Amino acid sequence: MSTLSPRPLTKASPVAERYRHVRATSRELGAPLSDADATVQSMPDASPAKWHLAHTTWFFETMVLKPNLPGYEVFDESFNYLFNSYYETIGERQPRPRRGMITRPHLDTVFDYRDHVDAAVETLLERGASPEVAELVELGCHHEQQHQELLLTDILHLFAQSPLKPAYRDPQPLGVGREPGEARFVSFDGGIVEIGHDGQGFAFDSEGPRHRALLDPYRLADRLVTNGEFIAFIEDGGYRNPLLWLSAGWADILANKWEQPFYWFQRDGEWWTMTLRGAQPVDRNAPVTHLSYFEADAFATWAGKRLPSEFEWENAAAGLSMEGNFAGSGRLRPKPAGPARDGALRQMFGDVWEWTRSPFSPYPRFKPVEGAVGEYNGKFMCGQFVLRGGSCVTPEGHIRATYRNFFPPDARWQFSGLRLAEDA
Amino acid sequence: MSTLSPRPLTKASPVAERYRHVRATSRELGAPLSDADATVQSMPDASPAKWHLAHTTWFFETMVLKPNLPGYEVFDESFNYLFNSYYETIGERQPRPRRGMITRPHLDTVFDYRDHVDAAVETLLERGASPEVAELVELGCHHEQQHQELLLTDILHLFAQSPLKPAYRDPQPLGVGREPGEARFVSFDGGIVEIGHDGQGFAFDSEGPRHRALLDPYRLADRLVTNGEFIAFIEDGGYRNPLLWLSAGWADILANKWEQPFYWFQRDGEWWTMTLRGAQPVDRNAPVTHLSYFEADAFATWAGKRLPSEFEWENAAAGLSMEGNFAGSGRLRPKPAGPARDGALRQMFGDVWEWTRSPFSPYPRFKPVEGAVGEYNGKFMCGQFVLRGGSCVTPEGHIRATYRNFFPPDARWQFSGLRLAEDA
Amino acid sequence: MSTLSPRPLTKASPVAERYRHVRATSRELGAPLSDADATVQSMPDASPAKWHLAHTTWFFETMVLKPNLPGYEVFDESFNYLFNSYYETIGERQPRPRRGMITRPHLDTVFDYRDHVDAAVETLLERGASPEVAELVELGCHHEQQHQELLLTDILHLFAQSPLKPAYRDPQPLGVGREPGEARFVSFDGGIVEIGHDGQGFAFDSEGPRHRALLDPYRLADRLVTNGEFIAFIEDGGYRNPLLWLSAGWADILANKWEQPFYWFQRDGEWWTMTLRGAQPVDRNAPVTHLSYFEADAFATWAGKRLPSEFEWENAAAGLSMEGNFAGSGRLRPKPAGPARDGALRQMFGDVWEWTRSPFSPYPRFKPVEGAVGEYNGKFMCGQFVLRGGSCVTPEGHIRATYRNFFPPDARWQFSGLRLAEDA
Amino acid sequence: MSTLSPRPLTKASPVAERYRHVRATSRELGAPLSDADATVQSMPDASPAKWHLAHTTWFFETMVLKPNLPGYEVFDESFNYLFNSYYETIGERQPRPRRGMITRPHLDTVFDYRDHVDAAVETLLERGASPEVAELVELGCHHEQQHQELLLTDILHLFAQSPLKPAYRDPQPLGVGREPGEARFVSFDGGIVEIGHDGQGFAFDSEGPRHRALLDPYRLADRLVTNGEFIAFIEDGGYRNPLLWLSAGWADILANKWEQPFYWFQRDGEWWTMTLRGAQPVDRNAPVTHLSYFEADAFATWAGKRLPSEFEWENAAAGLSMEGNFAGSGRLRPKPAGPARDGALRQMFGDVWEWTRSPFSPYPRFKPVEGAVGEYNGKFMCGQFVLRGGSCVTPEGHIRATYRNFFPPDARWQFSGLRLAEDA
Known about the structure:
Four copies of one chain form a homotetramer.
Chain A: H1 15-30, H2 49-68, H3 79-83, H4 107-126, H5 131-161, E1 185-188, E2 191-195, E3 211-215, E4 218-221, H6 227-235, H7 247-256, E5 264-267, E6 270-275, E7 278-281, H8 293-302, H9 310-317, E8 324-325, E9 349-350, E10 353-359, E11 385-388, E12 405-407, E13 416-417, E14 421-423
Parallel strand pairs in A: 8-9, 10-13
Antiparallel strand pairs in A: 1-4, 2-3, 4-14, 5-6, 6-7, 10-11, 11-12
């Protein structure tokens, strides 16, 4: 998942308040971590927590403060090299797979850096920021929320590498959820529908332009696929039947010996899984997560269904309340679905990102924004699939029905699961 | 590019005649090759010519003769292992990257195998084949035509590895073409259009079902991008500017040091290229080819345009005559465009496959056919982009306006180029 | 194994006769091969038969004819690039792992090349060659004999990759040998001994200078380790016990899942092995072969013994008759030991190369010869172990008691086995 | 470099004092490091400082306390998995390349672990340890000293990866040394000499048994090769001339684009190098270091000399005072040679490990010790070369004339350099 350029910020927004809230949240997320926890990079696709905390700060320093706050004093000139992610227009940077070599600065210094930048942003906002600046601050907040989610998924990955299986948060087991009952399928008419962000409030550039699309009638399951259902797939030999898999997925299975979702393992004949609360038994009633696209697609084929397209999903989600199991709840794990209600979709937001069958492609007339902030979702529009709806580690207030997350089809370390769909 | 399952064969078709024609063509394509030429595999994505000649024959033996010709005697039981491509339902097979280890049987034996199968197919057809069998034979013919094109692109790749740069065919230089003039853009209204094959005549399964799609107004260049235009991109530093490239493409450039189209090299300050006629000077007036998707996309960005979607291309191609520079001409290289005519698209068929911006995805309500022949375009619907229109090594009669070829974005050994598009 | 520079050729030698014999032998070795068999390269460490046949010819053309036969006309200028092995002083060459891309010239043309060079060498010798030239011809003959052995081991490797397991020669099974009885250990006093070639007759540069070495008393088994003994090692869990293995060998076992000697496989509960006569049952009485150094060393540790040093071996071999099971017998497989005789070593020459515990290092005062022919055993004196005694595919007359073959410790495709040793 | 099993501890030794000294030194070495510095693993061959500090402690806990101190309470059961290095007999362990994933325990906890074990060892020694236990403690001390050196070389490697080039110690530049003058060659007679440890005092198992060896007369340079001399090699194209290099070394140069010693870089036209004092200018008068075996060997060839054998070195070092520039000086960089004295060798101990031409092989009658401590130098006797004399980061009192260090020929991150030799 990457960043991002802004839609116009048209409605009055308490940007300073949002800024403080987001920045304080990041600090809280970093609190359980030691300097070492925050430094190590467990794989090239993951970044150290320290890097997330510093990079989001660098974004404000570089995009907001340097061009807009006269007299702003840069905290440390070397940070521009250390904490640039991939903005080619801004210059050279630490290669991504080498982010874990940055043992200095200390985590404490990164927090000092955050203080320094926060004070300057407050000054800027107090002086009365122009709409353009307010828009950039808002963009920076959304950008930081993306990194909050990644900080959590990356820490989970790191802790999963340790034989100690440390808990990021309270290692007490959560109660097992209620059996959610069979999924029911909700019907949608399709036809010509409006897709994409309408420009009211913030959105990333790839969510627009809003445009019309033509959909056939379709049906969506009213809840997410559960661990129990996925265990049935495993027990039916799902991981050993090539006919269920995309060719590239089958090659991954053979090469990597995948036989269960990421982070799962057997203990005394039971399925366990690594979580942000340490090693825990798999809850059969909760949504399955840490699936690659390949696994989600193979499961759907096995079940005689298919994955929804991102347009089907968005059309169904339009108008729904954005409630769900998000990071703020502190649960940090997906939760079994609540009781079914006729014709109502459950778990559309939060819990797990839902793989769609849609490759991440530009909408008609999409153009990246000019300048550094336009680097850009656009350059990732190749080899990725869209996920929708947010997860149990997505910050509240970050998600939208039009929000397009994306990952390569073999990515498993995000909280990614699925909802079944079929033609009507 | 892969295979394939049939649309119903509804119009009366001289299937025996088509069979003979296709089979004789393969034999001609193999004629310039020694046993060694036909055996070596130059990279895992390419197959030996011997393998193409035997695999297409194995297809008829396995799918047509064994189930339908009582008393048919298998030519050699071991060939089922050697020459199965990827049909999981049919059993184990020689691993793809090890196809070049098969020095036995000799190329002559493969031709004997072809004789044996051809005689049996003739017998079957003379006895009067059922519509189902006729359909399978037709499918086998189209399948073989796909492999004819691959045989040529794979031989070109092999010969390009040799320091001798041998010519597959007559090494005499071709005359340089006429300067084709600036491309003109032809406008299309879009709206709701019909896409996909209508079931009249043969098509592969992924070309259907025919369905409606919604298009914005758009414009297409009336000819392909030329070598001369691509040289301007190179000279403008196109290969050194990361802002022009998809992120995955830029990574490929850095890793592989791409600085020009595949097969190009400098000789005495001039651009030369390896071709099926040996090393030849680059013709600035001819269409550029052997581009990856990344290079096609970067060129379009540099030119201030974009690649067309596959629906835009198909909508523009619908109803055009399927004429062009195909394999049968014996030229085996792309040809400069003929004279422009107002509002008319040139070079839509033949010359080079045109990269579209469309990932290879299933059409609405697409379902793979049951059984082995349903293995299947569907399992390749991940990580590939669609190309349209055929090339100078596509057999005549193989292409259609609805035909969807597909390759990963880093593939360069096919005859792949581009046509520019823009929003109207 | 590599090449080589000459010792002075001091005794009168029928060099023309030797030349004819060696050259004719290569031709016979190539006879059972098709153009395709002779072209494919089955791994980077192996070379195509065509390459061996041409490279040895190129050696005579480049080292003997071009500098010494006025008016000699080069057969094909491009061959200098194609068939140079690694002589940096002579220029650029086809990269070793890409030797299999050379489908042209045809095998027939390579035989024409051999004719052309043979005729010129005959002319040169008839005119009366200087001692220096005679010495170079002799060197070329020994060089070609090395490649004769490699041609056979490389063809075996290639044919082992084919699911058809073709036989290079007569696929009839050989009779099973007699049980050779327990090995007996023969004692040697050690002390100050003379090691290395004394300059009488031909030797490679690395065999000298002759020098003194100090040996402790030691004992050598009177025969090679057999397949039956090695099966006992396997059945005792030898491949699963890390304490038996060198650290680097254990890493290889884990990475490559070695569980038996190279080319071995199970068929109906019995051990079989690929041979130059096709797939054959393992003969428990014959010497075990196709072992890496790691496997030889682990076996010796398991047996409570050790490998001999190369000096121990040479001291024991000095003065023995150079008889044994060589290539000329046409058996092309190791042979069970004949009857024991008190105090007499059996199987010292032929059958299998014997791994010694000696790294391939220069002898005191060793200096590579000047010029291209001095490229050179010396540059391989790193990361290799010495093997002694020749094998069942070594040409008669090629071996000596002072002969030092060498391979990296993970090499398994040569005919390599072991003889046990211990301190007295 | 690896470990180790003991020679009998025959002379009365103040083992408790040595223990305290060694343990306190490790603590001092860890003092400049943050938790993050001590956790990150910069390459598979290097280990985190935290790991070194804990592993050496685990060694005492496992080998000394658990079998010998009744009632000893293990500090943390999980540490047996985390901090075992490679002792197969002791059980499963964290894979070496994943040592950097261990962010927990905290560095402070590792120091608590050290306190816990130190207290228990003191108790054991106060109670009066048996000679066997005292021997194991002494072994543990030497083992820990080896890891002290590795801790420093591994931290240097880590800090070299950081764009900030942090200094482990005082970043002030050291004064440039005096020009040491031309090297003089000292002659040695050779003959039958005694090699290996005589059993008086501690030695690792691979240093024995003491035995006789036969040496030709030889000469050794009286000082180490300097940076200035190595710059002359670079400027003469040494890195571009394949004829100077071992074949495997030349392959490394091509693959890794080596053009200077490890850690060197150009700044404003001058050579700089990363050091434990941060980035520093290269001192032309100081010994060159961070060379692979390949570079040392190529330099010697270029200079018309050769590397000494380990026996030549040991014979020359026998009886010399073990004085030199060791870790205790706090310099942590090699130092220019002092004034020459006729016939006297300089810099034999300390400064840089001297590559010898000797592969690391067992001495005659060498047998690894039984049990876990016998895992063992022996299993590394393949693919490594011996280095002699210690370096500027070797602890005082750790080195001996018979000491055999060993590394693969491509290792560059140790303080490794060379002294020239020649035949007399």
